[in-house]
């Protein structure tokens, strides 16, 4: 049984149909890459799986862990183990990064956490991502650089240990060092949580140190090609233009 | 003797039916608490009273080149009027932190009157905790060239609490600067009025005034009034105002929910955030930490 | 392109030409019961209207003048002439309008505009409409466009009685009461269910008589699913005696109907413009206000929208230009009552040469108005330090299920922008005029071309003194 199964999914944003019949299966402990030119609906798929209410499923369904989650609320999906790393993480003044992750963890487990244990785990995880510990007490994403915001997303992923992490352009706009740190975080996630990944990207830098199980290419709201890791190289050489024709 | 006081007047009147031109307050003869005068260093004042009506005056006037930080904490029953006079002269800085704990049947009338001469600076942090009614007015004259003012106010209104905030920044001097940020949340049947005025007087060339308000609406019977004025009699100035009032916005809610946090918890976190944002600006760590603990 | 538009050669002096006063009837100055009775009988009012007027006069005498806005001390009500009847009957053909009145409107471009781009035109001269015409094809759709006096006794008399001063009652404020007592002239428009009037209807108000008041009443009912664009223009020559305009506009937008109401106001600079405009919008209806305020000595003008029906909408786009001797207090009011209602205000104010402009607004969201949205954006431009510009908005929100945004900005013309334009060969004067026109383009973009050109000419006139 696959962890995630997207069946013939159609999604509208307001009146516009963005996804036009998507089929996708991601198994346990697998890493999938979703590629394609800008504006083809990759992020929409990420939002639809996460359950953003602005993205309306008009037909088809989303199965997760054997359960139909198409109608499930965003936070219930999150508790089941779906995580989205946002392309543009939100700034939340007045709520520290540390307090935010702690409430998320408490909601997931349903119990209060001991502050000492929590702080210890948070600081260890931050070290893995070479994040300055002072960020824990700063307001969530407020005044963070682009790279710091993405690291904060990866930090949340490592702390919440989801079964499926969807990384939406997590590598865009990052310098070489930041890409390394983020890649390292993804590697740790795979090792520690044995979770699955759906990586949305149009560059390949972040994939270099990862073992990719499957690659999907999306164009105008449909998946035009599935393949293995070698498809990435093909795209690197030829671009997206001829992919659909092969 | 009982009297009706007309307070927190809007510097330029608008339609009467909006009921925002002024506030009315029933008052009675008050007993005078000892006056406090502060001219240097860091001071903490705790205003305690159990009188039916009491009043207190605090004067803060650092010498030239001095910086003073004053923490004022209000622990009282009944009705209390506190007048705080600020005088920031050349090269001086006044940092005033007021933490108000009003009990549910108490009324606080808190007035700050201030003047910046030379390049004096005033920073005011006001944290409105507690459940009683609060009327607060900050009226500051920026007289000196390059004088500046920063005001941060945080509140959470609950039950039938009334909060009436009137902030007036008068820009007289050239290159004067004002930053006003007010954030809060309203629960239950809480009522809040925020009046904020930036007044660029003729001659206040090259001055800048910014005013920003966010209100998170959580209660079914709340009343929120916001009246942000910019008055201007000078060409070369820049004034900005922004306000955002409503329930938790879609993006914020989605972000929280995508991390497994439900709407109610998200609302509670954001209501506290309105106050924490202000508390986090307090320099003294022990004051800051104890307030953060109290909020939770 | 069409032939050279009439508005291109506009000039302030056009508005300032005073016609010789040849009125047929002029009521005594001031305001008493006797004068109101006389006015009523002179106008052959139905009985209910006569009573309405007298009651409104009582209300007028009880109410005080507003103390929160610009001073109206210069307005001497004891000497304002409330009724001046021009020396003509209402004409349906332009040729029959007396030559002197025709010349005035010709100078203002009224009949040309009709020929070009309007579905119907009404022209009011002092207290009465002198010309009214509606295109045949529009009339065939069942659209009624007539003067208020005819409407009072005609086929739609009941409809008029049912709506007249029900939205703006005489008790609203002193000048609404005054209007109720002495109103005269104005237009009645009814657009039947489902009828889309594709091209605008226009009314033009001209106050020629010295020391007089104009109190026209505009009543528009856009029935279910119908749509209309109504344009209003105003002007008067300048006398050294104060004139008063206390008109009243009542608009009813029924279910899923749409109304756009555009005004370019250019009263002379001794006019007290104390006008009241209000609309009530039913379910799914839309009101769009487009408002340019350039003239008058003192203005109090805040079109109010009552969003009563669920999913109703309002948009307000305005520009106010206050020059020397002007104190223009303008803005908008909105009350959200229905669910999912939305309002959007976008205004610009310009102050120059000692002029005072005030943006005043109110956004009220009632407890019933769940899931309502409102956004207000007001920008002010100060062109010198003798002028004044105030922004006085208020919000009163009583439901948590709302999203309310407000932003205000005040500033001056950026030296960099002037420098940039000058580096392209423009004079400083022209550069500043261009920047101000650009600043006001929120309104000019919303107007039909002829009006947009006229508006930009008015701005240029204020900025440079000539029309290029």
What does it look like?
The complex is a heterotrimer of chains A (246), B (296) and C (468). Chain A is α/β, with parallel strands linked by helices. Chain A has a domain of 169 residues: P-loop containing nucleotide triphosphate hydrolases (Rossmann fold). In chain A, helix 3 packs parallel to helix 5 and helix 5 runs parallel beside helix 6. The longest helix of chain A is centred in the C-terminal third of the chain and has 18 residues. In chain A, 43% of the residues are buried. Chain B has 3 helices and 19 strands. Chain B is globular. Chain C is α/β, with parallel strands linked by helices and 468 residues long. Chain C has 2 domains: 395 residues, no CATH class; 54 residues, no CATH class. In chain C, strands 5, 6, 8, 9, 11, 12, 14, 15, 17, 18, 20, 22 and 24 form a 13-stranded mixed β-sheet that branches. Chain C has a 10-stranded mixed β-sheet with strand order 4-3-7-10-13-16-19-21-23-25. Chain C has a two-stranded antiparallel ribbon with strand order 1-2. Chain C is globular, with a radius of gyration of 21 Å. The two termini of chain C are 19 Å apart. At the A-B interface, helix 2, strand 7 and helix 3 of A face helix 1 and helix 2 of B.
